[in-house]
């Protein structure tokens, strides 16, 4: 095979054994890589109903055929497992040198099962694996863990690690790399912690076998030059995703005070201009000339890497308008290995519970010290923090008294940083995201705001599906970063050309969309198999706040989603996907996608 490395490494931590298996060619052609490989492996390997924090769960680290190649923004990996936060399929992508080293080691995926006897880390070198003691690393933050492992294994080693949140099994603990890269929002870090796995270190010395090495090098050089020449490139390099904050404020979609409002009075203090004023450096992922990690000095004198999502969720969403203090919360979250989006949701939820008198703790909006203390309580699972460590869904179920209506999640995963009181297209994107409420699969909100289309127009459904095929399908399976296309208009036509040069296989967008649809249907089947008769349209419906309450100010003042209109929109989405009225892929849809075996499994489980 060309383009793919050709092997999957399986590691059983309970036995301390590893095996290297040849990558199946059919798997590569049908699922491409990254998310596709992860979804297929987890579907095949996991028995329904397993505890996500048990040794039976698997952590999959997967690359795609474009990962780590000398083309724009290719330094990405997918990390996936059954989620301890949602009990469904969970994954995330992370920019890391581990992506490059994994391809050099001749691997397309690493599948980790079992549980080590004590704190351990996994060393992977050129396809072989060794489980080593992590006694001296357990309890350290991700920054210090990586620093020590780099001293031992070399500056160019690829390292994925967890912090206190993962060790303490916080349901939204992430996997971290390179002091600011983070992935696996639905608790992939907790899955690592449940296996006593502190880190994975990867080193390789080989080359990825390519169909046309010289052609790929030439294409990559052209592509890098095209990115550099884009009109928006200079502004992107200055602000990156932080420019989104001013846009969200202007359009009334900036999450404020637990998504109660879409505008924040202190927005000017935390926007891209404010970031530029205190910016000290910039970081990026391997093979990237669109470095998006803007680094500032935080209120505690430390370096913190910022982007829009963490600033909105740890800033406006909790009423905090001091960017240096927001940066301190963000840096601590990165060191602790806890998702900044879910953490900002949890703190905002707690502040609203406090305001309404549902908890005894006094946590005022915008109180940095209280937020900092609560964040540490979350990662250490102390007091109220222990309750919030379950996620806002679990916390609301425990607190009750109406708090479920403003626990901002879908399927248990906390909503990322876009308010949707007036944006039904983006609400649908959140509702139907394959991992829960995340923007990465279909960031339709900018198109929705600019399109001029009102309400629940059919074209919004079509756009959500189109973006899911591209963002959550093509990019997550190839596996590369979507930002060159999204942010500076890098032409999508490059990607089939890259794929042909790497693999020798010509795939047009119809074929690539077919792979995306197959992956989405398989992930949906995973959820249906897990949830059984508990599955239904309510699982794809945004929180009650967006239907029952309206913002009091800004461009979206008075706006609310309409329940009947949203339900009709969701039914039309299901129909276009070939799913039934419960949102489960029909047997004929699965058959057409070459997954008749999946249909049989769902019938056996009583899901269809």
Explain what you see.
- With 608 residues, this protein is α+β, with helices and mostly antiparallel strands.
- The protein has three domains: 7-203, 4-Layer Sandwich (Aldehyde Ferredoxin Oxidoreductase,  A, domain 1), CATH 3.60.9; 237-417, Aldehyde Ferredoxin Oxidoreductase Protein, subunit A, domain 2, CATH 1.10.569; 455-489 and 508-605, Orthogonal Bundle (Aldehyde Ferredoxin Oxidoreductase Protein, subunit A, domain 3).
- Helices cover 43% and strands 13% of the residues.
- The chain is built from 26 helices and 17 strands.
- The strands form five sheets. The protein has a six-stranded mixed sheet with strand order 2-1-6-3-4-5. A four-stranded mixed sheet has the order 8-7-12-9. The chain has a three-stranded antiparallel sheet with strand order 13-14-15.
- Strand 14 and strand 15 (303-306) form a beta hairpin.
- It is globular.
- The model has no long low-confidence stretch (mean pLDDT 97).
Tag the structure with descriptive keywords:
Aldehyde Ferredoxin Oxidoreductase Protein, subunit A, domain 2, six-stranded mixed sheet, 17 strands, single chain, 3 domains, four-stranded mixed sheet, 608 residues, alpha+beta, Aldehyde Ferredoxin Oxidoreductase,  A, domain 1, Aldehyde Ferredoxin Oxidoreductase Protein, subunit A, domain 3
CATH homologous superfamily designation of the largest domain: Aldehyde ferredoxin oxidoreductase, N-terminal domain
**Architecture of the largest domain in CATH?**
4-Layer Sandwich
Number of strands: 17
| Arrangement of strands in the largest sheet | 2-1-6-3-4-5
> pLDDT below 50 for ≥5 consecutive residues: which ranges?
none
What helical percentage do the residues reach? 40-55%
